[in-house]
Design brief:
Radius of gyration: 25 Å
Largest sheet: 7 strands, mixed
Number of helices: 2
Order of helices and strands: EEEEEEEEEHHEE
Shape: elongated
Number of domains: 2
Structural class: alpha+beta
Helix content: 10-25%
Length: 154
Amino acid sequence: MTSAAAPGQSLRGLNTKGAFEAVVKAVSEDEPCFLLAELNLLTAGSMARHRYQVLKVVRADKLVTAYVDLGLASAFKKDEFTIPGGQVDQNGKGHIWSTVGELRQIADEMRASPLRREINPPDIIGNYNKLIDETERLKARSSTYGYGGELVRG
């Protein structure tokens, strides 16, 4: 994996253009890591979409961001994902649980696992056609048969 400059796209919540945040070119596997995200972003020249590994690393009690260019986004079948490695409590104090190496290992496992979709999209066209059919039957006052052969009149 090679380090990369910040991509040309601004990221909401992970913005690198902020005045108090630095972009670094190299990270160590044993550094504390607040967040790892794999995102499909435009390259700095905005010529193509690449998959970037965005790492929020703690250095000198401040978060710095590192970008690792993983290659063309079309080569990745998995969706983008984010793995938290820490949290900020109500007092504004940050707590880090993981290192760069641990989060990268989780990311590698997520990329290697089979693609799963938890939510099946609704059949919008089928539901629309049912609505039209029911509306026409209601207007015509025709009988329809419900579950178990029960007669339903409009």
